[in-house]
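[Q] Does anyone have a clean structure-token version of this?
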Amino acid sequence: MRSLGYVGRFLAIFAVGAFALLRYGVGRLGTLLLGDPERRRTAVSHLQGLSQKAKATTWQDEIEARWREAAERLGGRLDVDASGALAPRRLHLVATLEDVEVSARATVPATAPGPGLGSYTEARARYLLGAGPTFEAHPRGRHPHEDGEQSLPERPAHLESVDPDALGVALSPQARALLDGMPHGVDLEGDGARVRLRWDGTERRVDVLERAMRLVATLARHGADHLRDLARLDGARWEPRDARGPRVRVRRGQAEVSLRVRRVDGAAATFAIVETRHEVPRFQVEIAADGTLDGELPEGVLDPSFAHHLGRVGPAVLRGEGDAVALGWRAPPTELQAEAAVTLLAPISKGSGAQGAFR
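[A] Here you go.
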């Protein structure tokens, strides 16, 4: 690939020379270069500008071509914003990978940047479920907001994190394998709403760009496969593009219960939610693993004949939200827990036709 760059530069210099000959002619060009000093300086300056423009265009075109190839391989699109010759060229690649929209951005300088010139490449995506782990990791020995140059590790396995447990939760085996394949140090961050991957330099390798975007997509899918697996429940259906975010919709007769992920206190939690026919008092009770309740449950919320299912949903929290009742888990629920929650909540669905205090 490097030899192609040399060929490109040679062709650019050749093109500048040919342009000069066409514009000035052989005789006039000789006069300009050998005659009046002022005119000679003007001509030389003009030729230097043409040479710089040709080199910049060649460098930027090479990078853009590689990003365009990555876009084709990922089934995405590349948007290019260039304000003019000898100006930075901004690249924005967008692709949908496993239901996750991932974007990558970089600014291509007019000339190949040297070390420490501040160029970088970034890929990011929102958590598919609307919420996900919060974590932060950086190349070992380098932290954000530090002054001065820092050497980067050659392998991303040298990442360090303020909270290694949080990073461990975020990194699935697939994500870890993709991360281990990155050829240079990266900054990796999840803020509970989105995932961001950033590294120094304008990325020139198609395979690295593709790997980075697949890594971000994998991280952004955190919990999605587990939630989707709950669609194995009787009457359940996985709906990844619901208006309020991905969900599993469970129908039991006329009743409907939604299984979703919400962000609670900065962390992702799974909830089974049922909308009610009438206003529900606001309340919150804790359900222990053995089904005992910590807190006051308003009369009529749950059918007493279903109370024995409480021991199958815990530990969990049950709360009234005005127009809905939600049962949530801090850890992803098992299929058995989700089934018990649907059984408990379905009778109070506004479409269930059941009778109770809130109907």
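[Q] Thanks! Anything notable?
[A] DSSP finds nine helices and 16 strands in the chain.
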